Amino acid sequence: MSNSTTPADPEGARAARLTIWSPFAFRDYRLLWLGSAAYTITAQMAVLVTAVWLFEETGSAARLALLGVVQLFVQIVALVWGGTLADQFDRKRLIAAVQAATFAVLTALAILAVAGTLTPWHIYAATAVLGVTGVVSQPARGALTANVVPRTHLLYAVSSDNITRQVGSILAPLMFAMVTERLSLTAAFVMAAVTAIPSVLMPLGIRADTRPAREEGVEVTGGPREVVRLAWEGFTFVRRHRLLPGLYLLDIGMTVFTFYRQVLPALASGLFRGGPGGVGLLTAANSLGSVLGSLTVVRFERYPRKGMLVVYATVGFSLAVLLFGTTTALWMGVAVIALMGATDGVSVTMRETVVQIETPDAMRGRTVSLGYLAAVTANNVGTIWVGFLTAEIGASRTMQIGGLLSLMITFGVWRGVAGLREYRDRTT
Q1: How far apart (Å, rounded) are the C-alpha atoms in residues 421 and 68?
Q2: Spatial contact of 165 and 158, defined as CB atoms under 8 Å apart
Q3: How do residues 24-69 score in pLDDT, each as one tens digit?
Q4: Quick one: 402 exposed, middle or buried, by C-beta within 10 A (0-12, 13-18, 19+)?
Q5: CB-based burial of residue 174 (10 Å sphere; 0-12 exposed, 13-18 middle, 19+ buried)?
Q6: Looking at the domain covering 22-206+228-422, what would its CATH class be?
Q7: Model confidence pLDDT, tens digit, residues 110-130
Q8: Closest C-alpha among 160, 206, 157 to residue 13
Q9: pLDDT tens digits, residue range 60-91?
Q10: How high is the pLDDT of residue 83?
């Protein structure tokens, strides 16, 4: 089957000057964008409200680190399954179904919070389910972009997708800080559930054929054996690719010793003596930096050495993490964490664009899922590392060590993967 309804390049599109707004000319992309924005706010609100509630309830950075342990176990299997599902079933319906489960879990947490019966074990259980729903939907969401915009618009669409995530990540912590300061933490649980509703409805309005391309005669069963076979096929494609292994290894290297987002309440307390308001401000600054990074990266549309751009961004991120560990004033922490977001935004946008360009539609869900698998595994290991190390040696030393280790790994990947140095984008 071929995706005959994938948008064709508009006449003269290559000659016209494309901008970050160009993908919004397509109705289906606008719907995807709206659903993604709602999901981003929901996901960020869920992370913040569960982490802050757990830290205030237990006062333990180690208990926050256990959130990473929970997610590490559930997300690996879920991502493998999610990638194969995205290459077998209608991607928009898959996203809607998974987000409906997210809404149900957040609603349950809100009810427990209102009733005053919420416990840490509820948070861990919900984190496990939300970890599964989040990663199962991501491969389908990532693969769907190429179904609703033409190839000429991909870099701009991916940049817009990342900006969408980050704008949502700015709004969510600001909303969280406002609601918790003016109302209560319980009200934030309710808000997280409400914001999930558009992420369920918007994908269903997409008109394009969002079923993945498949060879004629291929039977779709979704059984365990087929999942394993298709997952291995995707892994083999990535492993043999000249560039993708290097991109994924860079992501792992920059994250596994530095991932701070779920333990930010402990870092904010240790570095700046900040409470929920400080956590919200730092999170918003990080997301604002990522928006600026994504806006900057479109200036490099015609720069062919896109693999090296990821290397440069990773080096910048590592140095920023090292600097973050030396800050003691909140205003300086806000500035440095914005720089961390900017370099991460460049890395993420360029990496996801190359994956879209280099992967055929029939393989895209699995390839995207392997990228997310590398990312979320590194995120969860990073949460465990940063959380437990912060509890042992303090926030400042933890971030300094993480920055140094990230630099070392980046240099090793650059030297070891020739594809990063040699890759040239032939579409430029």
Answers
A1: 33
A2: no
A3: 888 888 888 888 888 888 888 888 888 888 877 776 666 776 776 7
A4: buried
A5: middle
A6: mainly alpha
A7: 888 888 888 888 888 888 888
A8: 157
A9: 666 776 776 777 677 666 666 666 666 666 77
A10: 62
At 33 the pLDDT is 83
- Tokens at residue 226, please? 């087929």
| CA 215 to centroid of chain Cα atoms | 30
Cα–Cα distance between 147 and 69 in angstroms, integer?
A: 35
Q: What is the mean pLDDT of residues 334-355?
A: 83
Question: What band does 185 get if pLDDT is binned at 50, 70 and 90?
Answer: confident
**23: which DSSP letter?**
G
- Residues 6 or more apart whose CB falls under 8 angstroms from that of 411 comprise none
Q: Rounded distance, CA 322 to CA 336, Å? A: 10
Nearest one of 345, 364, 353, 98 to 238, comparing CA atoms: 364
What are the C-alpha distances in Å from 217 to residues 45, 164, 214?
A: 44, 38, 8
pLDDT score of 14 more than 60? no
| DSSP secondary structure code for residue 326 in this structure | T
Residue with tokens 């402990």: 266
Chain-centre distance for alpha carbon 106: 19
Alpha carbon distance 126, 190 (integer Å) = 14
Supply the Cα-derived Rg of the chain in whole angstroms.
Answer: 21
CA atoms within 13 A on the CB side of 320: 25
Residue 31 corresponds to which tokens in the numbers above? 């719907």
Q: Rounded CA gap, 177 and 188, in Å?
A: 9
Residue 275 has a pLDDT of 62
Contact 401, 317 (CB under 8 A): no
Task: Give dist(CA 269, CA 276) in Å, integer.
Answer: 9
What sign has the CA pseudo-torsion 14, 15, 21, 23? negative
Q: Return d(Cα 258, Cα 284) in angstroms, integer.
A: 18
Q: Is 239 exposed, middle or buried (0-12, 13-18, 19+ CB in 10 A)?
A: exposed
Q: What share of the chain is helix, strand, coil (3-state, %, to 5)?
A: 80, 0, 20
Structure tokens at 387: 């959380």
From CA 50, how far away is CA 133, in angstroms rounded? 16
Given a contact cutoff of 8 angstroms between Cβ atoms, the answer to whether 176 and 276 are in contact is yes
What is the SS3 assignment for 249? Answer: helix
Contact status, residue 285 vs residue 344, Cβ threshold 8 Å: no
Domain map (residue ranges) of the chain: 22-206+228-422
